[in-house]
TrEMBL record:
Domain Kinesin-like protein Kif23 Arf6-interacting span(s) in chain numbering: 155-253
Pfam families: MKLP1_Arf_bdg
Alphabetized InterPro entries for the sequence: Kif23_Arf-bd, Kif23_Arf-bd_sf
Domain of life: Eukaryota
Protein name according to UniProt: Kinesin-like protein Kif23 Arf6-interacting domain-containing protein
Amino acid sequence: MGRKLHQKLQRRDAKIAMLEEEKVGQVMKQAELQNVVSNLHNVIDEKDLKLNQNKLDKEKTKQRLAVHSEKMNKELDEKLRRQREHLAASMKAKEIQLQKVREALNAEVIVRPENMDVDTIFDKGDKTPSATIENHLPTSCPPKRVGYNGTPYHRRRSRSADEVWLEHNTVKPVPLGTVMQPSMKKRKSVTKLDKAKDVTNSKQSKYCLVAQEQDTDGETETKLYKGDIVPTCGGGAQVIFNDVECLRQESPTGSPTK
């Protein structure tokens, strides 16, 4: 009887020991599973963080592109505005220059009989016109190029040494600092044409109108409007413009004109 009880106790102790081992194994397995779960959570958190960071980076990149695009648009608009202003200023300057030339031609070069003395317009003997400068040619008598003999203009240039110039300065010109200088060896300088004989003098065959102005960059530009003084059939004279010379100085480091 005692022996059977002892065997029974041994079997129970062995079973308890086995259960204890199984329990320890289950605990260890549970710990391993918890570690796996924890690692998986860490991986998920890292991926979420990366996704959020990528999203944030994309948002920042989008904002930078928007700012850069807006800046480029503003710079382009400003550049276009400056170009339009420069073009408008250039056109205005040219219009002013043309207006000055028109005014000079209409007010100075064209001398009307009513602006001259009677003794100047008519000879004292027969009272026939002796000197007038005509603006419009009469339809009944076209002007004759006296002394031309049908010789083309480009061949007359060879006799430039014998030509006498009438230099017309509407304003006192600023002295030129250019290496190239206007060459008029024989000339008569006037500031205003108020007498017909200023133009109808037979010794003068060339006319030069000197004009100076500042361009849009503030540089002084000198223009010489050159022409031939041609007698007319009415005893007067007219100027036929055929050439323009431009002299200007600008900084070698200045921006080019567009």
